[in-house]
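Researcher: We plan to redesign the surface later, but first we want a full-length starting point. Tokens attached.
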């Protein structure tokens, strides 16, 4: 794979992100305010598409066969990927969404510590010229993005009424036992607008200072998944890996909420099951793995969470997508044990999750990448926005409190992403 890297300054990021998401091409926007990084990948020179439980393993083999002209040690992303929650093609509002999709883009704009680099790649020198032409076309007519007003939805309703969700929580706690310790249930609130909310959402993603990964991606259709996730699934750089355990939630605001979360037996049980499941999934792929004995509280704008960070060293044969495949879905998104929880969800949850709760991220090479989990997100399609959230159910769960957790998560997304007043 041939490539060309150039240095740039003062690129019109807001304009380019809008153009990328509306150009009818695969595109990924990724932003982390905490380390001042931004990434925008546009176009496609090669791709891998698959579905089912073997898709990621096949994609890893596909990655291994690519001969990149420049080494991945420079840290530049060279590919990106998305998945659905069950790795099957999307249905209903997710129609057209691939089960698993890996893209080698024509253009990758990468900003780190104020330095912007543009990577153009393709199989031949002619493809590099086509990539240069795409960049020139995208920059034509660039103007400073004007401030947009907050759109007002004409209609708003739950996919599953809150009372029905609470009843499902109660039924789920009764189903837990020796073979099923935790299940994550999801719900969704739909909004309909007179016009598309996409540009206003992108503006919020570009400017919001909140800690997390601000993201938006499209496969080149009219559907965009956007959000700000606090959760990294796994990172790999050579043989080094890190993973994120994030489970246990309280609404921020009431005095003592963080301490209450730390001392909650229910939330600690939920968190520990996630940690156990992730360690079990990673053990066959690593030479070493460490995890703190106790979680700490991570405080976001609207919510508190319990978190821990796993660190380790992979075996030489372990590729990045091998790690993603082993971990997804973690007990934070599916349940524990994984197989029992997923079977329970197949039988009992009517909601089509699509990309919600699924991994996505960038890849620098077969053993380098950063995968996040698509939570705190909304699917934007035409004049509609669908906001998704989940809650982990264990034996100590109380239905009305789990319903309130879903409410709090959805409200935080609507405030920060859709600009609604809480």
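Model: Full-length starting sequence:
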């Amino acid at each position: 794979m041939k490539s060309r890297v150039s240095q740039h300054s003062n690129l019109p990021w807001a304009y380019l992100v809008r153009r990328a998401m509306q150009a009818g091409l695969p595109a990924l926007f990724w932003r982390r305010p905490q380390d001042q990084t931004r990434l925008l990948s546009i176009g496609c020179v090669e791709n891998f598409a698959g579905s089912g439980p073997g898709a990621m393993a096949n994609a890893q083999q596909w990655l291994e066969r690519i001969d990149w002209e420049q080494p991945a040690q420079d840290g530049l992303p060279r590919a990106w990927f998305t998945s659905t929650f069950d790795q099957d093609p999307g249905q209903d509002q997710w129609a057209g969404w691939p089960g698993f999709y890996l893209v080698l883009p024509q253009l990758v704009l990468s900003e780190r510590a104020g330095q912007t680099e543009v990577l153009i790649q393709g199989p031949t020198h002619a493809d590099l010229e086509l990539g240069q032409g795409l960049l020139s076309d995208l920059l034509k007519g660039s103007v400073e993005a004007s401030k947009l007003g907050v759109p007002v939805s004409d209609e708003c309703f739950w996919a599953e009424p809150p009372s029905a969700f609470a009843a499902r929580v109660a039924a789920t706690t009764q189903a837990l036992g020796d073979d099923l310790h935790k299940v994550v249930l999801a719900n969704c609130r739909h909004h309909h607008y007179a016009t598309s909310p996409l540009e206003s959402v992108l503006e919020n993603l570009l400017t919001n200072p909140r800690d997390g990964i601000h993201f938006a991606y499209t496969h080149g259709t009219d559907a965009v998944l956007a959000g700000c996730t606090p959760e990294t699934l796994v990172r790999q750089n050579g043989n080094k890996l890190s993973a994120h355990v994030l489970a246990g939630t309280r609404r921020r605001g009431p005095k003592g909420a963080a301490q209450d979360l730390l001392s909650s037996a229910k939330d600690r049980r939920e968190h520990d099951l996630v940690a156990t499941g992730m360690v079990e999934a990673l053990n066959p792929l690593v030479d070493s793995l460490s995890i703190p004995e106790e979680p700490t509280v991570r405080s976001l704008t609207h919510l508190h969470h319990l978190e821990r960070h796993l660190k380790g060293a992979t075996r030489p044969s372990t590729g990045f997508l091998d790690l993603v495949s082993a971990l997804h879905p973690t007990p934070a998104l599916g349940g524990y044990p994984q197989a029992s929880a997923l079977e329970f969800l197949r039988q009992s949850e009517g909601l089509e999750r699509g990309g919600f709760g699924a991994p996505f991220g960038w890849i620098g090479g077969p053993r380098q990448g950063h995968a996040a989990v698509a939570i705190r997100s909304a699917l934007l399609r035409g004049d509609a926005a669908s906001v998704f959230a989940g809650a982990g159910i264990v034996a100590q769960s109380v239905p009305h409190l789990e319903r309130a957790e879903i409410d709090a998560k959805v409200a935080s997304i609507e405030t920060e992403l859709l600009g609604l007043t809480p």
